[in-house]
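Dig into what follows:

_____
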Amino acid sequence: MTPAVIQLAAEAAERQSAEVTSFGARIAWVIGLAVFVAFVYWLMRQGWKWRGALQNDLPELPAAPDGLPAHRLALTGRYHGSTTAGQWLDRIVAHGLGLRSRVELTLTDAGLDVVRPGANDFFVPAAQLRGARLDKGIAGKVLTEGGLLVVTWAHGDKLIDSGFRSDRAAEHAAWVEAINLMNQSITTEGAER
């Protein structure tokens, strides 16, 4: 072999890349990351349960009575959750109120019927409705200004805000008007007695 060939062979050997990581170390990092993610998920789940335990004084949600009168308004859309009234980040998780879901909302003279496929349905009697407004957010969901229908209602000794978004957002204004008019007529009737 000539010195030029030896020099070329030496240069080629230098250009080869060294082993970057070992296969065992890579597997250890992946397993460690998976354990860390599982631990964080477990902590989040424990926090959710703890919040539910703190809210266990909330009574069971009423079911819709049989033979509801004809509906005033109906919509389909999304239920985004419930919070303590006036505190848009204080999510209520007791009785499934913290679970997002599809919703079929019906307003009748008897109250507000909330049907949630895959989650607990509930009914808000007309006497418990306190009002409605358009807002931009509720715990875990922020939209454009006026993109969320927020209904305020009383349950037990607590005022609750529940956030809904219709598949047709133009319907929200009619809902706000109907619920607020309904609330005024209930308040006026109660004052006359």
